[in-house]
Amino acid sequence: MATEYPKGDIRIPAPVLAPGLSLRSITDKLSVFVLTKNTPMAWIVTTAIGFMFMMVLMVALTWLFLKGIGIWGNNVPVGWAFDIINFVWWIGIGHAGTLISAVLLLFKQDWRTSINRFAEAMTIFAVICAGIFPLIHTGRPWLAWYWLMPYPNVMTLWPNFKSPLIWDVFAVSTYFTVSLMFWFVGMIPDLATFRDKAEHPVVKKIYGVLALGWRGSARHWHRYESAYLILAGLSTPLVLSVHTVVSFDFAISVLPGWHATIFPPYFVAGAIFAGFAMVLTLAIPLRALYKLHDFITMRHIENMAKVMLVTGLVVVYGYFCEAFFGWYSANEYERFMLKNRIWHGPYAWTYAVLLLCNFLVPQLLWSKKMRNRVGMVFLVSMFINVGMWLERFVIIVTSLHRDFLPSSWQMYYPTGWDFMTLFGTIGLFLTLMFVFVRLLPLISITEVKMLLPQKAQTSAPEGGGQ
Amino acid sequence: MTLSDIRTRLAGLGGRTYWRSLEELADTPEFNEYVHREFPAQASEFTDPAGRREFLKLMGASLALAGVSACTRQPDELLVPYVRQPEQVVPGRPLFFATAMPAAGGYAMPVLAENHLGRPTKIEGNPDHPASLGATDIFAQASVLSLYDPDRSRSTIGRSAIKTWDSLITTLQGAITAQRALKGQGLRILTEPITSPSLTEQIQTLLAGLPEARWHQWDPVYGTFQGGAPAAMPLYRFDKADVVVSLDADFLGFGPGVLRYSKDFSSRRRINTPQDQLNRLYVVEPVPTITGGKADHRLAVKARDVHNFAASLAALVGVAGSGNQALGTNEAKFASAVAADLHSRHGRTIVVAGDHQPAAVHALARQINEALGNVGSTVFYTSPLSTAPADGTSSLTELVGAMNAGKVDLLLILGGNPVFTAPADLDFHAALAKVGTSVHLGLYYDETAFQCHWHVPEAHYLESWGDARAFDGTVSLIQPLIAPLYDGRQAIELVAALNGHTTLRPADLVRDYWSRAFHGKTTTTWTLGDRDGKPFATLEQFWRRALHDGLMPGTSVLDWQKGALTSAPAGPVGVVPAPPAATAGGTYEVIFRPDPCVLDGRYANNGWLQELPKPITKLTWDNAAYISVATATKLDIPLTRSGNQQQPIIEITHKGRSTRLPVWVLPGTADDVVVVHFGYGRERSGRVGNQVGHNTFGLRTAATPWFDSGAEVVKTADSYLLVSTQNHFAMEGRRPVRALNTDDYRREPGLVAAMGVHGFEYKPGETTPAPKPRKLLSLYDDKEFKYEGNKWGMVIDLNSCTGCSACVTACQAENNTAVVGKDQVDRTREMHWIRVDTYFEGDPAAPTAIHQQPVPCMQCENAPCEVVCPVAATQHNDEGLNDMVYNRCVGTRYCSNNCPYKVRRFNFLLYSDFTTPELWAQRNPDVTIRSRGVMEKCTYCVQRINHARIDAKTEGRDIQDGEIVTACQQVCPAEAITFGNLNDPNSKVAKLVAQDRNYGLLEDLNTRPRTTYLAVVKNPNKAL
């Protein structure tokens, strides 16, 4: 496809797979991380750091359950703060995984193959991190965990189906279930490979159970392919629906700054934007750590950078629309909200930083040179991670702290426990991610094999059992 | 602890008493500490950041303690039902008893105390009493918490050891016998101002036998005068006055007559049709007060310049001999406009002189009233009621002189805390050390008790027998609602014991006095008759009627119905005294004011009052120096606040004394004035009030207790966190309070509705027609729901409301609302279900108006909170209430986020005190105590609605209009709150909703609030 470019032209897209790989070398290279007995030192160090932060989360949650929400900085005009910011942030991060694995599969984007597995894992872990918050942000989580579910009871009490928080419960739990199934089904042939290659009998047994009796027969491949496609089809609408529903938490309310019709598309774009940033944040170090340059090539990094650029511009369009709606509505509450948010409010600096992170810095990605510099792409993704967190801060805290009656205008200040919970969930995420990298196939072995030129024509690559 | 201590303690307890251990018996602080720290109550340790590291230590310790406490034998307690049910005691139905709270300067606050199975839980005003008319103030509301205060003093202490009452009486009788030989030369009695006839008689009997003994009086708030005490006591009829001029008088916010005066004044601000006439109020004052907020015209002048203004006004209205003083242009214009207005309403005006102004101003005000023909129609002058020496400062100065001279052998301090409150230059503390034997009677083991040889715990008024006179002289009997909780004694008991009546209990003493009074055998002659003035046939009839009604109708000095004095009028004014001379020195004027919530510090240990946002500033838990915007600029104090923040500390130096105080910029304060509130900085008040705020008594001297010039103010580099529940006092063009002038309202009643239109600007006097309000589209079904039966609604008349905040405390008492503490208020987590918002209008340097707006739950028809609750914990009921189901609430706080009024309050931590046993008895049994993690809010006092519903059902009728009175409505002295059935077109509330002044807060959001407001209509003078 790149024949029209002269040799050495920078514009030639990098290959999806590095040349010189064979079926055997792919299996060896990709299973060695799991089946090796020598755990790399770097893995131990990074996992230990992640684990440490996870313990911080445990301490923060224990104290939270003992004392109550009051240990955080939340107050009466600002009823939601870090809790819901973190929830929306994490759930947004999860979106890229589903987009990569499902939507790009349906669009037959072959470059997704090398990154879809860990992107999916990232989705699941991000949803786990996100899922903690709707529960712990309640005043009485020991009741909330089941009262938010529609279960039959003698009092015939049901949740309030008008409440967006109930929609959230359904959206997030559906999303988590489907993502988990999709992820697991995709791993079955690889788990069978591990079963076959593992030497320790216990390890063999474990992978054997997880492989669900996969033998790699044509019938298995046929069923597998169909199931995978169906799950991809199921996941696709979820990419759009989950964050749409999350955005309803805000859009349904009466609060200026929340009550805006642009929210669903704007939130979905934001989610993908944040998700790709997080995939890059993870992929770039992993690529270096496990020397995955053959599998995660510059092509991947560049494509993801392009997606970020596009979704980032959609997000900025969302900012513009919000501002325009506020002004055009001629509603004094909306207009004040904008002034307070952008210009003279005490949190206006967060909006400035937000624009820097989500608008100015990603513009670097217009340049192919920049996109080809891994360090630069990593840096931009880090900016976006911060920027997307700040975006939720701006939406939630800045809108709440000055609403309708000037008498109830107040300030919000986070406490140490707020930060501990935020960094604690990052710790939980990293721990889960590193455990995943050590125990499960980081890159889909079977699907990567399909990318080999000799396999391109056949529909069923060899899976486990070889 | 020794065996003798235990015996002493046992002797002090009446009847059989069980005890758990010797330590409890001795009631030592260590034992209390131990009881409070028992697992799991030590969780209190964790709130303290410094204590967190004690985590493991405590866990270990509590395990050990759990074993210890298991060995303690629990007392045998029998739970048996009544064998004979006492008459009228029905569980679940409260009884109300008339009594009176000795408050403000010894004057009675007549109340009805609600009693649930022997526990007083709530105070209401006595509707029959002319000084209450059903209302109460914040102090009466909060007094029920003081009754159960676990920090009240519990034992008689004699020279640092626990002693019995009998041992004290023996000691005192010995001392008195010694004094009798000396004709009482060495005996001094120090009381607060007293109006009680029976106590006065006992003291006078004691003094009669000891002619050289002296009775002194000290009260830093009500008994203290600068430049002499006024010669005559005025009584006002604000309901008859068309024009009122206040000369630094906060008659709506401060003083014994505040309830009656608020009610009378508000009756002239309440208008039903645009044609109704309003009264007009001019206020000349140095610092914004509740009264200043209601003013149609307010002039900020220094406290010292009020005299000049009064003298000029006197000259303008034609008082002979009052030379016209040199006034500034503004002041002169103001004075002439006021004078013209006063002249036009001859005999229908009032000029009020403030309690903090010298006798000179009082005399001028009286002369003006006389010149205007007001005396006898709207103002009545009579002699002061208080029986103790009137001028507290001179009386205390005399006492301290005697103490320092070593002439005082025995000092009885019956109430009050002079060690803390006495003027700094008197150094009462040092003088007290020179007294032979000092005895203190008080509710708390306070600073004075600590310095005295003896301390006796005083009985709370709800535990006492007694009598007191209201500001108009009406006598009320005080009857106990509960036996003394902590072995408290009364002043009358102590004095009677010294008179030899050791066996008589206070009930006998009071009854004895009034039976003699009934037969005309007391020194003071009392007119005792029923409400129609007819004398009673028997003593028993009189006594029962007086106890039941809570008042003796004939004892008032003013017949409120007829508007005539029943006692002798005060003598002529005579020579107007000269105002006190100014002190040279610095350029600032320092003004002293009692704290509006804790007064002189006596309520420092009352959490409700500490947390009650102070009127206008909304400060809690602290006192501050108030300065004007211009003064702040001069002192380089930042003006903007977006939230609670560190405020600079200023150092105020006056007459060689100085104090350091955080500063608060209060628009409307006179320039170059620094207003210092005293009452804070207590050292020995209890766990709530210790070391809260700054003690400013160190700056207050006997000669200038209220104001003086010549103060220096310097900004220091230090700062201090002040917490306020409101940090934005501008309306930002949103008009939560709609205010307009009476002429405009009369011409265009639709203006009130038009003020809800975005972008519409109200300009006084402009005659363009008001735009019609436009309805916005609603996200939800906008169909009107038909409520069968009752449809509750509330209307708050902002024109009547003074912002006194009594509703906030009443709501707290009625609904068991928790106190959260300064740290949590700083995080804006206070729990009040109703708040009073304050807004300033105009330039902050010279605000043109101060508006007050009580905000309870709006009980919206289209409630934004209801749709968003995921567990349906907040629901509309069939009478239109927005119900909150605490049991179902999981605490997502979404309802609060979506509430445009932010009236929902969340239990972020465990705020309700479940562990202090004393407080269990205080709570209203009809209202759930909310635990942590639950949202709560105003319920329109649903428990009262349900009581009325049960009554109506039992009697087979509908609920009558006015039968349900919410707690905020009941307490309101201005009658600003009306509650009732909107479905009944004849109900009071429905008629108010139909008024042109009626509007809903933020109604453009389509929430359709049930609670609506009546707009403020000001009555400005066109000449100004």
- Describe the main β-sheet of chain A briefly: none
Q: Report on the biggest sheet of chain B.
A: 8 strands, mixed
User: Percent of residues of chain B in helical segments?
Assistant: 25-40%
Provide the CATH top-level class of the largest domain in chain B: Alpha Beta
List the total number of helices of chain A.
16
Oligomer: heterodimer
Radius of gyration of chain B: 29 Å
Task: Give the percentage of residues in beta strands of chain A.
Answer: under 5%
**Overall mean pLDDT score of chain B?**
86
Number-wise, the strands of chain B total 40
Report the end-to-end length of chain A measured between terminal Cα atoms.
33 Å
- N-to-C terminal Cα separation of chain B, in Å? 73 Å
Structural class of the helix and strand makeup of chain B?
Answer: alpha/beta
Task: Characterise this structure.
The complex is a heterodimer of chains A (about 475) and B (about 1000). With about 475 residues, chain A is an all-alpha fold. Helix content of chain A is about 70%, strand content about 0%. Chain A has one domain (about 25-150, about 160-180, about 235-455). In chain A, α4 (about 115-135) crosses α6, α9 runs antiparallel to α10 (about 300-330) and α10 (about 300-330) crosses α11. The longest helix of chain A is centred in the middle third of the chain and has 34 residues, at about 165-195. Chain A is globular. Helices cover about 25% and strands about 20% of the residues of chain B. With about 1000 residues, chain B is α/β, with parallel strands linked by helices.
